[in-house]
User: What shape does this take?
Amino acid sequence: MTVKHISVIGGGTMGNGIAHVAAQSGFSVTLIDISEEALSRAIATITKNLGRMVAKGKISDEDQANTLARITTSTSIEQGVKQADVVIEAVNENFELKKKIFQTVEASVSEHTILASNTSSISITKLAGVTKRPEKVIGMHFFNPVPIMKLVEIVNGLDTSKEVYDVIEQLSKDMGKIPVPVNDFPGFVSNRVLMPMINEAIFCVHEGVATPENVDEVMKLGMAHPMGPLRLADFIGLDVCLDILNVLYDGFKDPKYRPCPLLVKMVDAGKLGDKSGQGFYNYSKN
Ligand code: CAA
Assistant: This one.
């Protein structure tokens, strides 16, 4: 199967990054979101990120224009997925919402179409179970910022076929990424390893071992991490970190994944990191 057209559902941080990279790699892309405003914001972000690459001489003005010309937008899932060989869903981490989307998509696509999810924590097997084509459902887990991060964690559900895996592995390479296959277990590999580290960093602050700045300095200078774990937690979103830790805790029933009470308290207080302007650091304009 040759992939020509990709439909991306959700124009937020991950969705617009995926649409950007797919279009820049030569695929024709339909970006789908619920409103024209959301789509305009997504296209403005893609334009800004492409502009950053033009300014650095990494791509030409023509590349930018061609990339943008390969992206069409739609506020209708039914219309927007019609031509798709692969649909990549990148909406909020809400199972009921994803279930509804997968069922709507399935009713509108061709038989050969692969349904991929960028979920970072919801079971691919469970998502596949709401469709009549579990063998064609797979996880394509990208990392933020999508245009920069090389990894695609490809998540095989219990029934994902080898043929579908092979298509998605090739597609990831064609998008300039490095695919790594994993099986569907809570947190996959990325978040099963990352989130306990972030949680432990939060416990260090909670127990007064060190300030957020000093925890991050230790990990940046001592372990060569590009961002310390608390800066990274703010970047990912503290609500997202808490959701993923709860998925690990519920999935394994192992107390080692219990979310730090400080993380729970910060989320309750609406301190969600970059997106709310306050997390372990302050991001307000002042
Ligand atoms: N979109 C596109 N490009 C971006 C960007 C964005 N939002 N932010 C930064 N960049 C680009 C810059 O243009 C720059 O490009 P060049 O190398 O071509 O010049 C490059 O990224 C580096 O940017 P900066 O020099 O401004 O800043 P930096 O060196 O501090 O790097 C960073 C920024 C790439 C974000 C780096 O700090 C980093 O790698 N951090 C870790 C990110 C990470 O771990 N992401 C995974 C999060 S987990 C996740 O996404 C999934 C999940 O399931 C939770």
About this structure: Strands lie at 5-9, 28-32, 71-74, 86-89, 114-117, 137-141, 151-156, 178-183. Residues 36-55 form the longest helix (20 residues). The pocket of acetoacetyl-coenzyme A is lined by residues 49, 52, 56, 58, 120, 143-145, 147-149, 190-191, 226-227, 232, 236 (CB under 6 Å). The CA atoms of residues 83 and 95 lie 25 Å apart.
